[in-house]
Specification:
213 residues, alpha/beta, seven-stranded mixed beta sheet, 6 helices, 7 strands, transferase
Length: 213
Amino acid sequence: MSALPPVTLLVIAKEPVPGRVKTRLTPPYTSQEAATLAEAALTDTLHTLLRAPARRRVLALDGTPGPWLPPGYEVAPQSPGGLDERIVAAFAHCDGPTLLVGMDTPQLTADMIADVGRDGRDAWFGPAADGGFWALGLADPARAGAVVRGVPMSTDRTGAIQRIRLVEAGLAVTDLPVLRDVDVAADAAAVAACCVRGSRFAAVLNSMAEVVR
Protein backbone atom coordinates (compact mmCIF):
# COMPACT_ATOMS: atom_id res chain seq x y z
CA MET A 1 0.00 0.00 0.00
CA SER A 2 1.52 3.33 -1.06
CA ALA A 3 2.09 6.12 1.44
CA LEU A 4 -0.13 9.16 1.40
CA PRO A 5 1.28 12.17 -0.46
CA PRO A 6 3.21 14.43 1.91
CA VAL A 7 1.41 17.66 1.17
CA THR A 8 -1.16 19.39 3.37
CA LEU A 9 -3.71 21.49 1.48
CA LEU A 10 -4.73 24.58 3.42
CA VAL A 11 -7.62 26.90 2.50
CA ILE A 12 -8.04 30.32 4.09
CA ALA A 13 -11.58 31.67 3.76
CA LYS A 14 -14.42 33.68 5.20
CA GLU A 15 -17.86 32.27 5.88
CA PRO A 16 -19.96 33.46 2.90
CA VAL A 17 -22.23 35.88 4.78
CA PRO A 18 -23.93 38.76 2.91
CA GLY A 19 -22.18 42.03 3.54
CA ARG A 20 -18.95 40.35 4.70
CA VAL A 21 -17.68 38.74 1.50
CA LYS A 22 -17.15 39.91 -2.05
CA THR A 23 -18.31 43.43 -1.26
CA ARG A 24 -16.64 44.75 -4.42
CA LEU A 25 -19.17 42.77 -6.48
CA THR A 26 -21.88 45.18 -5.26
CA PRO A 27 -23.05 46.72 -7.48
CA PRO A 28 -24.08 45.26 -9.88
CA TYR A 29 -24.82 42.28 -7.63
CA THR A 30 -26.71 42.54 -4.36
CA SER A 31 -25.00 41.58 -1.11
CA GLN A 32 -26.93 38.29 -1.11
CA GLU A 33 -25.90 37.54 -4.70
CA ALA A 34 -22.28 38.38 -3.89
CA ALA A 35 -22.39 35.99 -0.93
CA THR A 36 -23.96 33.29 -3.11
CA LEU A 37 -21.11 33.69 -5.61
CA ALA A 38 -18.57 33.58 -2.79
CA GLU A 39 -20.11 30.37 -1.48
CA ALA A 40 -20.00 28.82 -4.94
CA ALA A 41 -16.34 29.82 -5.40
CA LEU A 42 -15.42 28.41 -2.00
CA THR A 43 -17.35 25.20 -2.65
CA ASP A 44 -15.62 24.70 -6.00
CA THR A 45 -12.23 25.24 -4.35
CA LEU A 46 -12.91 22.80 -1.51
CA HIS A 47 -14.12 20.09 -3.89
CA THR A 48 -11.16 20.63 -6.23
CA LEU A 49 -8.77 20.05 -3.34
CA LEU A 50 -10.60 16.84 -2.50
CA ARG A 51 -9.54 15.61 -5.95
CA ALA A 52 -5.90 16.46 -5.28
CA PRO A 53 -4.02 13.80 -3.30
CA ALA A 54 -3.04 15.09 0.14
CA ARG A 55 -2.06 13.93 3.59
CA ARG A 56 -4.34 16.48 5.27
CA ARG A 57 -6.82 19.14 4.23
CA VAL A 58 -7.33 22.09 6.56
CA LEU A 59 -9.77 25.02 6.36
CA ALA A 60 -8.72 28.14 8.27
CA LEU A 61 -12.13 29.75 8.58
CA ASP A 62 -13.30 33.19 9.65
CA GLY A 63 -16.82 32.25 10.72
CA THR A 64 -18.84 29.08 11.11
CA PRO A 65 -18.88 26.06 8.80
CA GLY A 66 -22.05 25.57 6.75
CA PRO A 67 -23.55 22.96 4.44
CA TRP A 68 -21.07 24.08 1.77
CA LEU A 69 -18.23 22.34 3.66
CA PRO A 70 -17.68 18.79 2.37
CA PRO A 71 -16.36 15.98 4.58
CA GLY A 72 -12.62 15.53 4.66
CA TYR A 73 -11.53 18.85 6.16
CA GLU A 74 -10.18 19.80 9.55
CA VAL A 75 -11.51 23.25 10.50
CA ALA A 76 -9.37 25.75 12.40
CA PRO A 77 -10.50 29.25 13.37
CA GLN A 78 -8.62 32.15 11.85
CA SER A 79 -6.58 34.27 14.21
CA PRO A 80 -7.20 38.03 14.50
CA GLY A 81 -4.97 40.56 12.79
CA GLY A 82 -4.06 41.55 9.28
CA LEU A 83 -4.03 39.07 6.43
CA ASP A 84 -0.30 38.49 6.78
CA GLU A 85 -0.75 37.50 10.43
CA ARG A 86 -3.74 35.30 9.60
CA ILE A 87 -1.73 33.49 6.91
CA VAL A 88 1.12 32.89 9.35
CA ALA A 89 -1.32 31.56 11.95
CA ALA A 90 -2.98 29.28 9.37
CA PHE A 91 0.39 27.72 8.48
CA ALA A 92 0.96 27.08 12.19
CA HIS A 93 -1.80 24.44 12.08
CA CYS A 94 0.25 22.40 9.61
CA ASP A 95 3.45 20.41 9.43
CA GLY A 96 5.38 19.18 6.42
CA PRO A 97 4.94 20.59 2.90
CA THR A 98 1.84 22.80 2.91
CA LEU A 99 0.06 24.71 0.16
CA LEU A 100 -2.26 27.56 1.13
CA VAL A 101 -4.93 28.75 -1.31
CA GLY A 102 -7.72 31.28 -1.03
CA MET A 103 -11.41 31.14 -1.95
CA ASP A 104 -11.28 33.49 -4.95
CA THR A 105 -10.10 31.17 -7.75
CA PRO A 106 -12.84 28.62 -8.54
CA GLN A 107 -11.13 27.90 -11.88
CA LEU A 108 -8.36 26.07 -9.97
CA THR A 109 -7.87 22.46 -11.03
CA ALA A 110 -6.14 19.62 -9.21
CA ASP A 111 -3.63 19.29 -12.06
CA MET A 112 -2.32 22.81 -11.40
CA ILE A 113 -1.02 21.80 -7.97
CA ALA A 114 -0.15 18.17 -8.68
CA ASP A 115 3.61 18.58 -8.13
CA VAL A 116 3.45 20.62 -4.93
CA GLY A 117 5.30 18.80 -2.17
CA ARG A 118 6.72 16.26 -4.62
CA ASP A 119 9.25 18.22 -6.67
CA GLY A 120 11.86 18.76 -3.97
CA ARG A 121 11.41 22.53 -3.87
CA ASP A 122 11.26 24.77 -0.78
CA ALA A 123 8.31 26.93 -1.81
CA TRP A 124 5.49 27.20 -4.34
CA PHE A 125 4.00 30.48 -5.48
CA GLY A 126 0.80 31.14 -7.40
CA PRO A 127 0.66 34.73 -8.72
CA ALA A 128 -2.65 36.45 -9.31
CA ALA A 129 -3.35 38.58 -12.37
CA ASP A 130 -4.11 41.63 -10.21
CA GLY A 131 -0.64 41.61 -8.64
CA GLY A 132 -1.51 39.55 -5.58
CA PHE A 133 -1.16 35.81 -5.12
CA TRP A 134 -3.66 32.97 -5.00
CA ALA A 135 -1.39 30.28 -3.56
CA LEU A 136 1.61 30.06 -1.29
CA GLY A 137 3.32 26.82 -0.40
CA LEU A 138 6.15 26.08 2.01
CA ALA A 139 8.04 22.83 2.49
CA ASP A 140 8.54 23.96 6.10
CA PRO A 141 5.46 25.89 7.28
CA ALA A 142 7.37 27.01 10.40
CA ARG A 143 9.12 29.51 8.10
CA ALA A 144 5.85 31.33 7.34
CA GLY A 145 6.42 34.01 9.94
CA ALA A 146 9.81 34.94 8.51
CA VAL A 147 8.67 35.11 4.89
CA VAL A 148 5.06 36.37 5.16
CA ARG A 149 4.81 38.62 8.22
CA GLY A 150 5.03 42.26 7.17
CA VAL A 151 4.23 41.75 3.48
CA PRO A 152 1.73 44.48 2.52
CA MET A 153 -1.48 42.78 1.44
CA SER A 154 -4.16 43.76 -1.09
CA THR A 155 -1.91 45.91 -3.28
CA ASP A 156 -0.82 45.49 -6.88
CA ARG A 157 2.70 44.75 -5.59
CA THR A 158 1.78 42.15 -2.97
CA GLY A 159 2.67 39.17 -5.14
CA ALA A 160 5.98 40.61 -6.31
CA ILE A 161 7.01 41.50 -2.76
CA GLN A 162 5.98 38.11 -1.43
CA ARG A 163 7.97 36.26 -4.07
CA ILE A 164 11.04 38.42 -3.42
CA ARG A 165 10.76 37.55 0.27
CA LEU A 166 10.82 33.85 -0.58
CA VAL A 167 13.90 34.23 -2.77
CA GLU A 168 15.70 36.45 -0.25
CA ALA A 169 15.13 33.73 2.35
CA GLY A 170 17.13 31.39 0.15
CA LEU A 171 14.16 29.24 -0.84
CA ALA A 172 13.97 27.43 -4.18
CA VAL A 173 10.59 28.50 -5.61
CA THR A 174 8.31 26.76 -8.10
CA ASP A 175 5.94 29.14 -9.88
CA LEU A 176 2.38 27.94 -10.36
CA PRO A 177 0.08 29.26 -13.13
CA VAL A 178 -1.15 32.86 -13.02
CA LEU A 179 -4.84 32.91 -12.09
CA ARG A 180 -7.39 35.70 -11.93
CA ASP A 181 -9.07 36.41 -8.60
CA VAL A 182 -12.78 37.15 -8.39
CA ASP A 183 -12.90 40.70 -7.04
CA VAL A 184 -15.23 42.70 -9.28
CA ALA A 185 -18.01 41.79 -11.72
CA ALA A 186 -15.69 41.70 -14.74
CA ASP A 187 -13.49 39.21 -12.90
CA ALA A 188 -16.48 37.01 -12.13
CA ALA A 189 -17.45 36.77 -15.80
CA ALA A 190 -13.88 36.09 -16.96
CA VAL A 191 -13.27 33.45 -14.29
CA ALA A 192 -16.57 31.68 -14.94
CA ALA A 193 -15.56 31.31 -18.59
CA CYS A 194 -12.39 29.47 -17.45
CA CYS A 195 -14.09 27.11 -15.02
CA VAL A 196 -14.32 23.41 -15.75
CA ARG A 197 -17.57 21.67 -16.59
CA GLY A 198 -19.70 21.24 -13.49
CA SER A 199 -18.42 24.38 -11.78
CA ARG A 200 -20.87 25.68 -9.19
CA PHE A 201 -19.49 29.19 -9.61
CA ALA A 202 -20.12 29.27 -13.35
CA ALA A 203 -23.59 27.78 -12.91
CA VAL A 204 -24.56 30.35 -10.27
CA LEU A 205 -23.24 33.27 -12.31
CA ASN A 206 -25.02 32.04 -15.43
CA SER A 207 -28.29 31.65 -13.52
CA MET A 208 -28.01 35.24 -12.33
CA ALA A 209 -27.44 36.39 -15.92
CA GLU A 210 -30.53 34.45 -17.03
CA VAL A 211 -32.63 36.30 -14.44
CA VAL A 212 -31.34 39.65 -15.71
CA ARG A 213 -32.23 38.72 -19.30
